Amino acid sequence: MVSRSSTLVADSSVPEGWALHAHPQGWVYFTNPTLRIVTDQDVRLPEICEMLDKVTQFCLNNADGIELHLQVAKELSGAAEGHGAGALSLAINHLHCVASYDLEEVTTRFDSLQTDLRTLNRRRRLYWNFLWNHPSHAPLPSTALDQARDALIWYITDNLISGQRSVVPFSKAECDDLGKVLKELADSCYDNSPARTVFVAWFLREVCSFRDSQNYGSRTLKQSDVLRRELKSSLSPSVSRPPPFLLPLINVVIRVLFFGIPLIYLSHVRKSSEYRGRLANIQQNWENYIEQLVREYAHVLLISTVLLSATVGLLSVSDILQPAKTAAIVSALASLGSIIVGVVAIWRHQASTRTTDSFTYMYNAQHNYLGYHGHAMILSLPPVLLVWAVVAFSVSILAYAMQDAADPADRWSAWLVLSLFLVFLFFVFGALWTFSGLWSFQHRSRILSFRSIASVFPRFLKKSKPWDIEIV
């Protein structure tokens, strides 16, 4: 275990009265225990040491427990001209764990009960930031671990209550890891560890930064609820719609020519563009969005490839007439279009997985002329073209079967195929109708419409009516 004394480096070039300390990350800083001064300037340089000698005369009457952190060299130069150390140094009160650029605000007369919580939180953030950068000369305050554990417990609670909408700076998994480390650091063998000081100071600095961003200690419960609702509404993505005069036409195209498929992709795009909780959730939403698109496109590509093979096989039949051939060619072209668009979409989406890519993607999708509707129509092209390919292939099969209907010897088989096609078509539409509303609560008129259809076939559907099942 590295102890605090082992970070005190003996260096003959360090002036008398000064000590050199090493940070766990490797850099060094200097302290003057007599004058209670800490500086990052290299006192081994004669010009820096000379300026410090001029500055330290203002620190001779320093209050007990107060350290002064002298900062950049140009400020030391200004102090050497007589501006005083208090205007260019950070005053550190280790007893109350506060720091300020005004020495009077952190003296031993400091009373946290007479300081508003937001100001107190900012002073504590300055303190923990100082200790994070200078951990090797001062022990960790005795209350630091208790403060860290208390903040961590609340972060875990908020993650459990709010889920993905939690805005605390650490996720549930990160809180679990932090809890294990804090539990380990409570062991007495880490009492003199500068690394422990760095870790706890970093964590408490992040706690104070988060509290400052949330205006910690300045609002009532009612005011906080109002602000949270306003923030939620402001973060909700604005619905990007096409121009009003085009919206009815686009809705007709989506529901008729595109079979309503773009509505599914429209919900995918809107869901992935929502900002909930931490910024890291945007990346998670974006990755889930890409994974879902790639998976769906992969299934479409498989079916399109099989359908294209079947269509080519149909076109190779020697006695196929022109109507069936035309429908088969349309089916083949639609399958090819589905494959081409699907492959390009998979390639482009898988190559852009960064968070910055998601911002650019959503911005462009939202601000094009047709908005999210137009983008959803483009995303739905592979499955839409596949559906049209299936329709054209079915027409070609039906046309091929009916091309011998004029021949008395083959007429019965042609009408049998047509009858079976109509029966299959009825069940396909019934299945599509059921699946279209199976995952949402339906109005009773929808159930009654199925009952009216069922009444046409009372004997066939007498024993089983799955659409009459009601949720209690």
TrEMBL record:
Transmembrane annotation, as ranges: 245-266, 300-321, 327-347, 384-402, 414-441
Domain of life: Eukaryota
Organism whose genome encodes this protein: Mycena sanguinolenta
Protein name as it appears in the record: Uncharacterized protein
Species lineage: Eukaryota, Fungi, Dikarya, Basidiomycota, Agaricomycotina
Keyword vocabulary terms for this entry: Membrane, Transmembrane, Transmembrane helix
